Amino acid sequence: MTQEHESLISAFKARGQEHVFQYLNEISEEEKNLLFEQLSGIDLDEVDYLVERYVKQEGESDLDFNKMEPSEYVPHFDKDESVKAQWKEAKKIGEQALREGKVAAFTVAGGQGTRLGYNGPKGTYPVTPVRQASLFEVFAKKIRYSAKHYGAPIHWFVMTSVVNHEQTVSFFEENSFFGLEPEHVHFFSQGLMPAVDFEGKLILESKNKVVMTPDGHGGSLRALNRSGSIAKMRELGVEAISYFQVDNPLVKFIDPYFIGFHLLGKSEMSSKMLAKAYALEKVGHFCDYEGKQMVVEYSDLPNEYQEQRDDKGELRFIAGSIAIHIFSVDFVASVGGDDTTLSLPFHKAVKKIPQLNEAGELEKPAEPNGVKFEMFVFDALPFAENPVLIETLREDDFSPVKNAEGVDSPESCKDHQLQMFAKWLNAAGVKVEKDGEGVPSFDFEIDPTFATDVDSFLEEWNQLTEKPVIVSGTVLEG
Ligand code: UTP
Predict the structure, then answer these.
(1) Are 377 and 463 found together in one domain?
(2) Residue 400 CB less than 6 A away from ligand 1
(3) What is the pLDDT of residue 59?
(4) pTM, two decimal places
């Protein structure tokens, strides 16, 4: 036993966690070393704090909802003519930043996609209507298109987790990085947090391993720092990080308007919102509280607030969060750095966590037996100076694949992609036949190598000397 191992044993004993050593006499030297290595990465002060706050107490929010105000936002120009000039100006600034290579794309792809029930990294899931291109392929091609369009490389940072890192990297390798330069794609794994049972005890998944789970999409901010990605961005001259989630193929993450608003507003963290479809839609709500912007989850905001209406009969808390943000590199360096006064809070999730039973065998419990801890990226907002919030339209930017069926499923996402492509064609004067639900009656697709949004579509379409006829199975490629 080394001195280091002995001091780990006393530290864990002092916190009532000595059960993690109960199989020490049954495991090999190599297994022991692995156990000690894992334990040395656990911050026991943090575990004690989380257990005290979220396991022994309820960890309820202490927000006074009467002080909550809806956040102001820049409306979309399709909804408010008066802001058209503002959007035009923002676009110019955003395009300039893209030409100067100041923007990096950042995908959080460390989730486990349990609701979708797909076996593999979610980014490898096939989504497009005809070619069944994967989510990663769609994003890669959007980057390819924009880098060519603006004449500057766009670096892509992809956060994975230990669970899917290798599979993710192999997927890119097998697909030749979808035509991107491999040195422009940067992978790193997010951090892990130990799970605990309802007594606050660490949970063993084998005789030499405790259960650790990904620390949530909010963990991306510290992972960007710890992985050296922030330092790399600085070397590359990147100033703005365009953050998006892996499950939304519609997302316009190289959006010159949004980038421009972020830069013009000297914002540390900017967000896109969309108008809630109905009062109790299950989205986070953008609110201002004591001079700070924040997102309050639907589960935390009492229904009476979600349903409040203003004098004009409009929903008061109308701004829904869709997890699309731009961060300044300096902001992520501070809020994801070592200063604990700037750390994001944790949230608890009660789960069924497989654990070793009395006989030392792994068993999946029938009932929830423990708690996982996760950080949420929007919790960075209250730390941000000059947060900018702009409106986007659902049909242009948001249709996530979350569930196997129903709302936010592969089927609804396919319909939304078809509707978006039809909208671009309509803008060019081409009518697409639709069914009673407003969904095109046949499958076709506009590949991101051709265009990535309505503006770029019109530009490309108008340059075609011979316009193709759009029929079932058409794939418009650049
Ligand atoms: P979700 O909250 O939808 O979680 O993640 P999920 O893991 O993909 O799916 P479920 O809940 O198990 O069904 C939203 C985004 O945040 C990423 C996901 O990959 C997705 O892009 N994420 C989530 C991480 O990168 N790390 C995490 O620890 C959690």
Answers:
(1) no
(2) no
(3) 64
(4) 0.96
